[in-house]
Amino acid sequence: MIYLLVGALALQIAFGDTGAQADRGGALQELARKPFGAVMLWALGIGLVGMALWRLSEALFGSAGKDGRSARKRLLAAVRCGFYVFVAYSVLTFAATRQQSGGGSSDKQSRDATARALELPGGQWLVGAAGVGIVVAGGWIGVRAVLRKYHDHLRLDRMSRRTRQAVDVTGVGGGTARGLVFAAAGVFAVRAAVDYEPDQAKGLDDTLRTFADTPLGPWLLVCVAAGLVLFGLFSFALARWRRV
């Protein structure tokens, strides 16, 4: 749901609606304005709690697959659990108070976190290393999507040929767009470290807006936004056919 809403908001920005905030906060605000918005916000928050508990179970007991009990997979599951705990807390706080937790928009959060990190001993190296890590993660996400590595996690035998083709469209397109956004955000973090300028760091909203400032104009942002919508659809396929 969040990826679908962020992608839709990014499309609005691409076509001239500069007031939209294309990040998790903007997605929650958009959802709150819909009929039964309060119910959907609580349902979304509870679902994210479920995601956190699922990742916690993988960290404790292992995940599906031949190396699901390896230390690397368990550590990765623990990191993802922490991420979903944070996101669930943000969504549930918004549902209860209609105010964003964690300091507001993703852009402000990124700038504030970067400024605090730069003040630490060796802060430039820390921020630069984090930026490089995000770039690598974005590339890893995109390459795995293109190579259809998500097939390892899906029950392909339960899909028809057309369904599998549709899932591949959403998986490849959505994963590539998601990886590109990660990589771009990482590049801005590296620039912030090199220039010792926290304002160079960008959250999801500013990162997406940057795609519209390239020589390709708003059409690159349209493609990335459409990709995020595809990833939202792909997430529903994961919920339906993933091995757990």
Automatic annotation (TrEMBL):
Family matches, as Pfam families: DUF1206 (PF06724)
Domain DUF1206: 2-61, 78-148, 174-242
Keywords: Membrane, Transmembrane, Transmembrane helix
Superkingdom as given in the UniProt entry: Bacteria
Bilayer-spanning residue ranges: 38-56, 77-96, 125-147, 167-190, 219-239
Keyword hit for Transmembrane helix: yes
Name of the molecule in the record: Integral membrane protein
